[in-house]
C-alpha cells in the first residue's frame, strides 16, 4: 500500500503541481488549501507525512499553527515546511515547533523527493529495535545513524535531515576538513556557499542551546569545516 502524503498549500496551481509530482513517485497524495480544511481531513485520518506552507490564505502563520496542532496529536509524524519564507527566524520557529525539515520553494523536486524518502526511512528505523542501529560516538556526541538521531550529553539535538547528514559527514572523519561541496553531496543538496554557511550556523546554535560551551565545529576559512577530534 502506498504511503499517504498530505500537501497543505494555498496556491491552487502550486498545490496541484506538487500533488501531481509527489504522486508520480509512488505516494498517495492529497492536497489541502487551508489550515481548517487540512485539520478537518486529518481529524478523520492522519497522513503518514505532511508538507506545509507557512502562509495559508488569510493566515500568515497558518502553517505554524497546523504544525503545532499536529505535533500534539503525533510526536513522530514527519513534517516538512516547504515555503518561500526562508529567514533564519522562520526556519528556527518552524523547527522549534517540531518540523523535521524546512525547505525553500526553489528547492529542486529531486531534493524534495530525497527528503520525503529519508524521513520515511527514519520512521521505519524508529520502529526497529535500537540494537539494530549503527552507533557512532565522539565524546559527548552520539549518532544513531539508521534513526537519524543525534544527541549531545544525552539530550536530543533537533536537527533537520539536511543538518543531520552534515554533522554525520563531519563526525565520521574527525579532524579532517570537509569542503562545502562534500557537505552538499552527502546531504543531497545543491545550494550556494552562503546557504551551507547558514546551515552550519543553525547547527551550532542548536548544540549551543544544549551546551553553551559547545565548540566542536571549526570553520577553516577558504576550505570548509571540521569536527574537532
Automatic annotation (TrEMBL):
The keyword Transcription applies. The modification 4-aspartylphosphate is found at residue 53. Residues 4-120 form the Response regulatory domain. InterPro entries: CheY-like_superfamily, OmpR/PhoB-type_DNA-bd, Response_regulator, Sig_transdc_resp-reg_C-effctor, Sig_transdc_resp-reg_receiver, WalR-like, WH-like_DNA-bd_sf. Residues 133-229 bind DNA. The keyword Transport does not apply. This is Two component transcriptional regulator, winged helix family. One of its GO terms (cellular component) is cytosol. Keywords: DNA-binding, Phosphoprotein, Transcription, Transcription regulation, Two-component regulatory system.
Amino acid at each position: 500500500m502506498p504511503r499517504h502524503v498530505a500537501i497543505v498549500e494555498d496556491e491552487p496551481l502550486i498545490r496541484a503541481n506538487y500533488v501531481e509530482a509527489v504522486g508520480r513517485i509512488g505516494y498517495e497524495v492529497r492536497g489541502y488549501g487551508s489550515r481548517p480544511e487540512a485539520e478537518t481531513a486529518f481529524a478523520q485520518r492522519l497522513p503518514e507525512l505532511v508538507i506545509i506552507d507557512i502562509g495559508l490564505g488569510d493566515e500568515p502563520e497558518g502553517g505554524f499553527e497546523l504544525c503545532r496542532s499536529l505535533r500534539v496529536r503525533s510526536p513522530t509524524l514527519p513534517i516538512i515546511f516547504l515555503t518561500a519564507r526562508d529567514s533564519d527566524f522562520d526556519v528556527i520557529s518552524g523547527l522549534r515547533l517540531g518540523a523535521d525539515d524546512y525547505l525553500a520553494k526553489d528547492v529542486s523536486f529531486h531534493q524534495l523527493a530525497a527528503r520525503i524518502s529519508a524521513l520515511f526511512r527514519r520512521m521505519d528505523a524508529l520502529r526497529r529495535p535500537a540494537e539494530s542501529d549503527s552507533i557512532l560516538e565522539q565524546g559527548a556526541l552520539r549518532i544513531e545513524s539508521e534513526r537519524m538521531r543525534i544527541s549531545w550529553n544525552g539530550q536530543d539535538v533537533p536537527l533537520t535531515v539536511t543538518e543531520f547528514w552534515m554533522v554525520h559527514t563531519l563526525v565520521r572523519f574527525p579532524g579532517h576538513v570537509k569542503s562545502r561541496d562534500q557537505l552538499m553531496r552527502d546531504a543531497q543538496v545543491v545550494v550556494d556557499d552562503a546557504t551551507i554557511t547558514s546551515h552550519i550556523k543553525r547547527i551550532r546554535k542548536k548544540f549551543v542551546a544544549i551546551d553553551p560551551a559547545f565548540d566542536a565545529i571549526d570553520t577553516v576559512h577558504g576550505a570548509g569545516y571540521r569536527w574537532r577530534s
